[in-house]
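Give me C-alpha cells for this 114-residue protein.
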Amino acid sequence: LTHQHDIFYFDTGLMATAPSSTLSAATMTTTETATTFEPILPDTTALIGFASIVLLSAVAGWVWANQVVPVSRTKLALSKKNGPVKDYLDELKASATSETTLASGKGLPISQTL
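Here you go.
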C-alpha cells in the first residue's frame, strides 16, 4: 500500500481514493522521490526491423514506378491503337455523334426513339 496525492494503490492493481479531509497528518508527510528518465537507443532488433520495413517499402516503390506503371501504359497505348479499348472508344464516338444529331433536330423525334 503506497500513498501519493490522496490516491492509494493496492497490490491487486485496483485503486481507491480517499477525501483529503479524512487523511491524518501522519499520512500527509510522505516523501516523494523524483525519478529522472534518460534517453536511450532502442533495442538493435527493433532498429533492424524498422530499417527492413523502410528498405522493402523503397524497393516496392521503385518496382512500381519503373516496372509496373510503364508496362501498363504501353499495354494501354497498344490497346488504344488496335484492340478492345479502340473498339470501345469508337463506340463512344459513334454514340456521341448520334446523340448530337438527335439533339440538333436532324434525327428522329424523341417520342420515336423510346
